[in-house]
C-alpha cells in the first residue's frame, strides 16, 4: 500500500467531539476535516459503530478517514451509545435507537458551519448494515452510501440463520458482543472517576443477545425490521456495495444491484471480511480512490464517471490448491454493464439418472469440519481446507473431467426431490473443484432446513417418508474451473460447526437432483482495472504481544467426541499517541459426537485488557450453548477487574424452546 502524506487540503483532527442526542446522551466522535472547512465547507462522511474508535477500529480508521479529510471531507467516526467513549446503553443490534441516533448525527453534521449540507455514510459489517438501514429511513441530508460486507436480509443472510438453519455464528457473535461491549470508556476521555460510573452502568445493563436471537427462530417481524429487502424502494441514496468471495456476505452485492432503484454499483473481490485497500487474499485495490469517485459525484456533484461504471465488477478466481489461508488468489476482473447479465447462461445438469435408485444421505454429525469460518478476518487459518474429509462423509456426484475451462459466475442452485425419515432435517450442498490428484477445493455452498423449503416465516414439519421438492441456493461466486478438473456436488445432512444439527440423526432419500450452473463466457483477461491501494499514515503503535491464530481438531478415541479448538490472540499494542494499551484473546471450542446431534456444544472465553501507566482493567466473558430435543440451553458470565480486584460479576442462563430449527 502506498502511504500518502501530502493532500490537497491540510487536515486537523478532533479526537473527542461530543454530539449530544435529543435525549441528552452524549456520543463521542473522532473527526478529521480540512483545516479551512469553516471558511470552505465540505461534505461529511459518517461511520457509526460499536467497535471503539479509540482502540478498536483505529488501525483502519487511521488509513481511511484522514485520507478522505485531506481530499475535502469531514470524516466522522462515532462510537454508538453504550460503547467506547459514548454514554448511554445498547440493548440490541440495529435497534431503532441506534438508527435514530445515526439519523440525528447525519442531521447534526449537515447543520455544522464546516459542512455543505451533504452527508455520506459508510461502513463494513455492522457499519455496512446500518448505513443501508439508515438510508431506508431517508434522512434528508444523506445522499450516498458505501456499504461493505453487509446484508439486505437480517434473517436469511446474516450471522443468525441461513436457509432456515441456525448458524453457530449466532452464538459466536453474541459472545463476541458481550465481550466487546464490556469494556469501559478511556479515562483520558471520560475524565476523573466518571469512566468507572459509565463502565459499571454499562456492565449492569449489558445484554447477552443470544437468548433474544434464539427466541426468533423464524423470519418474523423482529427480523423484517431493518431488512431493507422488505422495501428496496425506500433506499433513495446512491449505493456502492462491496464484498469479498472469502467473506460470509457474498450475496448482498448482487441483491442490491438487482433490486434498488437509486444509483447503485457493485464490486466483489477475493477478500476476507476487510476493507479492500488492505484486505487479503491479494490483489487488494485502491478502495479509497474508488470511494472518492463515489463521494465526489454524489456529495460534491463533480462529474467522475461513476454512472458509466459497469453495474457489477467481480474477480473470477483461478483454481488453487486447497489451503486454510491463501496470501493471494490469481484470477481476473470481469465487468457486466448490466446485472443480472444476459451473458450468464444457466446450464441444467441432472445428477441422478432417470430410473436410478435414490441416493441415501445420512452424514455423521462431524461432516463440515473442513468448511472454515463463516466470515474469516484474522489473515490466519480460517478458510475452507481440502474438502476430501467432508466429501467422504457426503454423497458426492462427480461430473466428467472438463475438456475446457469454465467460468462460474453467479449463484449455483440444486433442485431436489427428497424424502426424510424425521420431521425436521437439514441439507448442505457444496460445489467443489476436484483436481486431477483428487484434492477438493470449495467453490460455493448452501444449506437448507427442509421444514423451511416453502417459507422461513411459516415452516412446515416434514412428513416422514413423503417426497417433497426443495431448492438449495448456493452463495454467489466467481470461479474458473480449469480443463482437466472435475466438478463435484457433495450433499450431506450435517455441516458442523457452520450450522447447529437437527435434533435427531436424519436419513434422506434423494430421488432427483438438478444442478443449475451459472456460466459466463470465458474471460480472456482483466475487463476492468482498479488503482493500486493507497492510505494515510498508518497507526503508530508499539507491539507488546504479537498476534497468533491456531486451530486444532481432536478426536477422543474412547468416547468418540470430536472437538474443534480455536484460539485467536489479537495481540497487545500501545498507542504511541495517547498511550493506551489494549489486548484481546478469544478461545472457542466446538464439540460433537459423530452419531449424536444432541451432544453438540459450543463454548467461548474472551479476555479484553486496557491499561495506561498504573491504571489497568480487564474483562473476562464466558459463554456456553447446548441443546436437547426440545430446547436450547445457554449461559454466560461477565467478570470485570480493576487492576487485580474483581469489581463486577454477573451470570446469565436461559432455556429457549426449539421450533423447527
Automatic annotation (TrEMBL):
What keywords are assigned to this protein? Hydrolase
Domain of life, per UniProt, equals Bacteria
The keyword Hydrolase appears for this protein: yes
Instruction: Give residue ranges for domain Xaa-Pro dipeptidyl-peptidase C-terminal.
Output: 292-539
Which Pfam families does its entry note? Peptidase_S15, PepX_C
Gene Ontology molecular-function annotations: hydrolase activity
Q: Which residues form a coiled coil?
A: none
InterPro entries xref list: AB_hydrolase_fold, CocE/Ser_esterase, Galactose-bd-like_sf, Xaa-Pro-like_dom, Xaa-Pro_dipept_C, Xaa-Pro_dipeptidyl-ppase/CocE
Q: Does the keyword rRNA processing apply?
A: no
What name does this protein carry?
CocE/NonD family hydrolase
The source organism is Mesorhizobium australafricanum
Amino acid at each position: 500500500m502506498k502511504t500518502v502524506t501530502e493532500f490537497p487540503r491540510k487536515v486537523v483532527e478532533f479526537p473527542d467531539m461530543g454530539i449530544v442526542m435529543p435525549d441528552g446522551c452524549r456520543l463521542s466522535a473522532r473527526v478529521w476535516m480540512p483545516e479551512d472547512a469553516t471558511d470552505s465547507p465540505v461534505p461529511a462522511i459518517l461511520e457509526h459503530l460499536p467497535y471503539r474508535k479509540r482502540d478498536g477500529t483505529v488501525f483502519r480508521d487511521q488509513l481511511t478517514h484522514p485520507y478522505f479529510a485531506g481530499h475535502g471531507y469531514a470524516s466522522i467516526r462515532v462510537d454508538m451509545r453504550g460503547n467506547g467513549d459514548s454514554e448511554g446503553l445498547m440493548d440490541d443490534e440495529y435497534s431503532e435507537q441506534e438508527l435514530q441516533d445515526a439519523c440525528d448525527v447525519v442531521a447534526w453534521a449537515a447543520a455544522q458551519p464546516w459542512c455543505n449540507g451533504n452527508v455520506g455514510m459508510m461502513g463494513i459489517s455492522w457499519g455496512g448494515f446500518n448505513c443501508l438501514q439508515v438510508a431506508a429511513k431517508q434522512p434528508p441530508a444523506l445522499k450516498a452510501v458505501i456499504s461493505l460486507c453487509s446484508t439486505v436480509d437480517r434473517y436469511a443472510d446474516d450471522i443468525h440463520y441461513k436457509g432456515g438453519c441456525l448458524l453457530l455464528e449466532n452464538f459466536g457473535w453474541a459472545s463476541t458482543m458481550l465481550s466487546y461491549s464490556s469494556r469501559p470508556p478511556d479515562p483520558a476521555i471520560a475524565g476523573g472517576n466518571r469512566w468507572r460510573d459509565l463502565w459499571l452502568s454499562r456492565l449492569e445493563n449489558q445484554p447477552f443477545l443470544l437468548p433474544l436471537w434464539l427466541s426468533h427462530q423464524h423470519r418474523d417481524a423482529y427480523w423484517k425490521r431493518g431488512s431493507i429487502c422488505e422495501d428496496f424502494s425506500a433506499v433513495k441514496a446512491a449505493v456502492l456495495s462491496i464484498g469479498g468471495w472469502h467473506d460470509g456476505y457474498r450475496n448482498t452485492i448482487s441483491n442490491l444491484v438487482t433490486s434498488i432503484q437509486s444509483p447503485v454499483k457493485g464490486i466483489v473481490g477475493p477478500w476476507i471480511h476487510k476493507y479492500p485497500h488492505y484486505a487479503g487474499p491479494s490483489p487488494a485495490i485502491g478502495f479509497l480512490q474508488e470511494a472518492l469517485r463515489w463521494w465526489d459525484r454524489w456529495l460534491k456533484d463533480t462529474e467522475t464517471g461513476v454512472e458509466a461504471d459497469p453495474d457489477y465488477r467481480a474477480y473470477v478466481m483461478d483454481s488453487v490448491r486447497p489451503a486454510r489461508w491463501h496470501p493471494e488468489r490469481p484470477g481476473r476482473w470481469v465487468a457486466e454493464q448490466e446485472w443480472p447479465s444476459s451473458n450468464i447462461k444457466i446450464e441444467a445438469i441432472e445428477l441422478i439418472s432417470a430410473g436410478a435408485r435414490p441416493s441415501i444421505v445420512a452424514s455423521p454429525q462431524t461432516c463440515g469440519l473442513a468448511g472454515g469460518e463463516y466470515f474469516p478476518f484474522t489473515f490466519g487459518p480460517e478458510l475452507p481446507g481440502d474438502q476430501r474429509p467432508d466429501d467422504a462423509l457426503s454423497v458426492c456426484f462427480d461430473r466428467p473431467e472438463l475438456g475446457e475451462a469454465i467460468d462460474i459466475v453467479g449463484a449455483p442452485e440444486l433442485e431436489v426431490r427428497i424424502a426424510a425419515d424425521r420431521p425436521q432435517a437439514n441439507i448442505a450442498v457444496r460445489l467443489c473443484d476436484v483436481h486431477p490428484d483428487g484434492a477438493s477445493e470449495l467453490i460455493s455452498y448452501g444449506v437448507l432446513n427442509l421444514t423451511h423449503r416453502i417459507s422461513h416465516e411459516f415452516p412446515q414439519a416434514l412428513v416422514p417418508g413423503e417426497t417433497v421438492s426443495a431448492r438449495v441456493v448456493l452463495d454467489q461466486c466467481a470461479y474458473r474451473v480449469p480443463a482437466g478438473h472435475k466438478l463435484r456436488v457433495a450433499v450431506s445432512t450435517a455441516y458442523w460447526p457452520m450450522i447447529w444439527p437437527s435434533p435427531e440423526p436424519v436419513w434422506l432419500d434423494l430421488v432427483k437432483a438438478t444442478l443449475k450452473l451459472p456460466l459466463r463466457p470465458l474471460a480472456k483477461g482483466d475487463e476492468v482495472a482498479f488503482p493500486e491501494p493507497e492510505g494515510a499514515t498508518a497507526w503508530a503503535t508499539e507491539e507488546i504481544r504479537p498476534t497468533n491464530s491456531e486451530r486444532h481438531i481432536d478426536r477422543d478415541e474412547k468416547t468418540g467426541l470430536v472437538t474443534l479448538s480455536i484460539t485467536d490472540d489479537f495481540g497487545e499494542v500501545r498507542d504511541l499517541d495517547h498511550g493506551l494499551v489494549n489486548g484481546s484473546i478469544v478461545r472457542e471450542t466446538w464439540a460433537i459426537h459423530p452419531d449424536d446431534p444432541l451432544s453438540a456444544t459450543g463454548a467461548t472465553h474472551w479476555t479484553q485488557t486496557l491499561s495506561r501507566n498504573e491504571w489497568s482493567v480487564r474483562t473476562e466473558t464466558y459463554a456456553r450453548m447446548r441443546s436437547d430435543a426440545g430446547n436450547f440451553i445457554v449461559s454466560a458470565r461477565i467478570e470485570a477487574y480493576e487492576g487485580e480486584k474483581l469489581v463486577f460479576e454477573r451470570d446469565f442462563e436461559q432455556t429457549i424452546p426449539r421450533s423447527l430449527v
